[in-house]
Every structure is written in C-alpha cells, then in structure tokens.
Amino acid sequence: MDNNSEILFKGMTRPAMLWGVPLIALISSVSVIALIAAWTNFLVIFLMFPTIFVLREIAKKDDFIFDLYFLKLKTKGDLKTMRFWGANTFGATSYRKTSPKEQRLDIHGLPLSSQPDFSKFIPYSSHVAENVIITKEGDYVATWECSGIPFEIADDDDLERRKEQLNTLLRSFSHYSVSIYHHNVSRSVSEKLEGNFKSDYLKEINDLYYEGLNRSKFKRNTLYFTLVYRPYPSVVERRSRQKGSLEEKKQELNYHLAKMQEFCNRLEKGLSKFGGKALTTYEKDNVVYSQQLQFYNYLLTGLWQPIRITTEVFYKTLGNTLNHFGVDTGEIISPQGKRRFFRCIEIKDYVDSTYEGILDVLMYYSIDYTITHSFSLLGRNDAVKALKMQEKHLQSVEDDAETQLAEFSLAKDDLASGNLAFGKYHFSITVFGDTVQEATDNTNEC
C-alpha cells in the first residue's frame, strides 16, 4: 500500500446478506409471507423458498438492486405521460386542471395538467441571506466555488498536507447535523477577450484568431463545495417546528441563520486555501440575481444561465427544460429545442484504499461531466452505533470478508481517537453528450 493511501472501510459500504439476499429485503419478504400465512393458510409459508431463490437471483446483479428499485418507485412519473413520451418525463411547469374546453389546449393529445414537474424533487425555497438558501424542510444551504490547487506541479507532500487540512476541517463539523456536497463540473465554454483596436488590420487579425478558436472546444473544470445545515434532522422535530407561532418561527430562523453563518465563516476560512469564493446574490440593471440558483439550475438542466430572484418560491421557478429518463440514458430538451443526452455512473464496488487525486485523471478527458460526492456526517456516538451494528450484521450472517471484518477494530479505534469521522456517503458521475452515441462513448471513456 502506498504511503499516502488510506484504508477505505469496505465493510461499511456493503449490505449484510444472508443466503445471497440483502438482509433487509429478506426479512421484509419473509415477514410479509408469514403474515399472509397467519391470516390465510399455513401452507403459504412454503412460498418462502421460491421467494428467497428469486431474490437471490435478482441480487446477483447488484447488492443494492432493491434500493434502486425503491428509488425508481419514489421517482415514478405519471403513467399517462410515460405512455405518451415512452419514458419517465418531468417538465419545468405545472398546469392546473381547468375546464374541458381549456383542456383541449394540450400537446398532441396529452393534457398539460397530467405532465409532472420538478417541484417535488427540488428542495430550495428562498434566500434568507445573500449567501444562504433555506429549503422546504428548514435546512440551510450555502455553496462556494473553488479554483482548487495546481495538482500537476504540486509535490506529494503539499498535496498530502492540503488533504489533511481539508479532512481536519470536515471533522470539526462531526458534532453537528451537517452534510457536505462536492461537485466537479466539467463543461464546454467559449473564451474571448474584448479589445478595442484603432487599426482595422489588427481588429481583423483578432477576429480571425477567435473565429478559429470558436471551432474548438474549451473545457473548464470548476469545483463547488456545498454545506447543508439541518437543525431539524428528524421528522418529529420538523413537525414540531411547524406548530410554533409566527414570532417563535422568526426567532428560530434568526438563531439557526446565525449558527449557519458561523459555520460558513469557519468553512470559508478553510476553503480560502483552495481559492474558495462564496456564491451570493448580485444586482444587475436593478434586478437581483442569485449565483447559487444559477449553479443549482445547471445541476438540474445542464444549462448555464443567470437566474433572477422573484417573489415565487425557488422550487417552482428552477428548471426550464423537459427531462426524459429512459432505461439507461436521459434526454434534456431546452426551451429553444436543443437536445442533450446524459448517462449516470455509480460505484458498484469500492477499492481497498484511496488517496488524494484519485480522480484527477478525469480532468484530462474532453467531455462534459458532473461528479457529485455527498457526505452526511454522523456524530461520534451515532458513528460508533453504526459501526457496531454493521459489524454485528456481517458476523451474524457469517460473512466471508474476514479482512473487512478485521478493519472494524481499526475504524473504532481511529473514531475514538478523533482521527476519523464517519457518515453516509454517495458518489455519482453524470456524463453528457450531444447524441445518444456520444453520451454512451463518453460514459465508456470514464
């Protein structure tokens, strides 16, 4: 193992399995069959054996296949819309059901009111400060744009030191209900310097130069760091918050906003080493725009454009495209009719160790992509419980991964010493292309 590499505790990334079936799916299925047998006929209990066989065959494709099925069920669109488009489809605008006469103003036979929109998937509600947005659930969100560090010319010791500084910064938030999102956005841009030339000859040379550049693609890699503070992490806390008076809600808002700004100041100081700059609101031609919304809208639509702040809540105004989600490829249609395709990649199995710059090679690819890391920090007590529970699950089902089981002792020791912080992690890459084939080829290149 390389000196700068670190153990990736794979035992925490795997579901506990028994007879080749994820434990939760197995217990749920057996419980349902047992309940049916208790209410109908005892012989129904024998359905457990073919059920376990079918579940095991399904799980051979992916240990998390049942989680994906559940996610698919949660994001399922309108059946009428799916039959019309041939794919799960969501639009930017919601339409109310009106009179039968007005319902004839549909799109080729599909009533506009049956077209699902993005709003239920968009959490953002409104700006409560220039750099902070509050969500529908009462979470506070702030984002920084980071230029990063020139990893190609930095020595290994410097990269290791920067990594440790960032890790220490993140561990300092482990006592709070905080989540971190990191995005690496690679997109095509057109670069041009505006110049005033007194000489027509020089102006012609300049125009010819940039005309040649416009025929080439420039790629810009930008890093974004998002902090999410959840003062009400549980459903019970969120419901109790809704029962308070208006004055109590204002006091809570001011208190948690002050707490969020404290977190922002701490994080911004740490990110300054990476060229961090907070995304805020700005004014242009007497109109207020939001850099945060501009970034979030890009994640949703793949379009980079200014987003103005209106009196409407953000989850009803973000997203101005029609998005189709097929079996393995999606399509984005802009208001101008431009079509763009995308595919998503998730990690099925993690490596045994990781190191700084493990994904730097992707920056050399001439493709548009968005890499997303999400990490929801757990407090030390919750992390210890999660470690012990996962270790117990793997031991109880006699899991063969002895090395991974042995690593749990090291994980608990590092956690108790404050050298590590644990949390819920997710990773994905969204790869874009102007055609289905280009999106497929770009995905294979990654």
Set out the fold topology.
Elements: E1 6-7, E2 17-18, E3 21-22, H1 23-39, H2 48-59, H3 65-74, H4 79-85, E4 88-90, H5 100-103, E5 124-129, E6 132-135, E7 140-146, H6 156-171, E8 178-189, H7 200-214, E9 218-229, H8 235-242, H9 246-271, E10 276-278, E11 281-284, E12 287-290, H10 291-301, E13 322-325, E14 330-333, E15 339-346, E16 353-354, E17 369-377, H11 380-396, H12 402-417, E18 423-433, H13 436-445
Antiparallel strand pairs: 1-16, 2-3, 4-13, 5-6, 6-7, 7-9, 7-10, 8-9, 8-17, 11-12, 13-14, 14-15, 15-18, 17-18
Helix pairs in contact: 1-2, 11-12
Structure description:
The chain has a domain of 289 residues. Helices cover 38% and strands 22% of the residues. It contains 13 helices and 18 strands. The strands form 4 sheets. Strands 4, 5, 6, 7, 8, 9, 10, 13, 14, 15, 17 and 18 form a 12-stranded antiparallel beta sheet that branches. Strands 1-16 form a two-stranded antiparallel ribbon. The model has no long low-confidence stretch (mean pLDDT 83).
Proportion in helices: 25-40%
Distance between the termini: 24 Å
Name the structural class.
Answer: alpha+beta
Percent of sequence in beta strands: 15-25%
Q: Based on Cα principal axes, name the global outline.
A: globular
State the low-pLDDT regions, or none: none
Task: State Rg.
Answer: 25 Å
Sheet having the most strands: 12 strands, antiparallel
Number of helical segments with 4 or more residues: 13
